[in-house]
Amino acid sequence: MSKQELQVLTGCCTPISEAALDPAQAADGAAVFKALADPIRLRLMSIIASAGDEICVCDITPHFEVSGPTISHHLKVLREAGLVDCERRGTWVYYWPLPERLTWLSSLLSAPAAAGL
Amino acid sequence: MSKQELQVLTGCCTPISEAALDPAQAADGAAVFKALADPIRLRLMSIIASAGDEICVCDITPHFEVSGPTISHHLKVLREAGLVDCERRGTWVYYWPLPERLTWLSSLLSAPAAAGL
Hints:
Chain A is of the alpha+beta class. The first copy, chain A, has helices spanning 3-6, 23-36, 39-49, 57-60, 68-80, 99-108, and strands at 55-56, 84-89, 92-97.
């Protein structure tokens, strides 16, 4: 799924507690959940999302006991899912969260009382 | 992961936009996201969550073009993740959502401004 295609997932959505997803919506949503369905990626996402601002990959890797290339692979999956973005500056790559996608997932799973918040 | 172990995931939580997850929290959270990281399961979850009340498996299967045993397998994964529960009555099994788990996931992914809602 390209980042452009995933744009349709932002700015939505009706919670699943209010309306069933059609097959296309379910396929798109499942792809984003898949990006978070790994302990390393979910922890990476939380480190980037809670950093307050952008965070250097050099400040991310010390949190993990896996190799740099492994971290890079997982960051790429998060980026392709539209959950984070990044920019290389000199030696290091800096990451920041794309809150629209998290908000979309959050509202998709919200209870009816919280819909639209 | 047993249903009992997953109980710790309810009644929480600090959004990942506010605090990074520790490895154990990330492992638990990723396991629940994995249950939703499949198009059939996410659609099943939305059908059960939006039914308003419990729903007979006989009203679920017509939405899908896959076999009954395949649907049963995916429903079992959702049940083991603590997202739905069920009861057999006579010929049919009836499913209902467990909203605490959806609320937990929703707040985990919520933006800081929506935290605690």
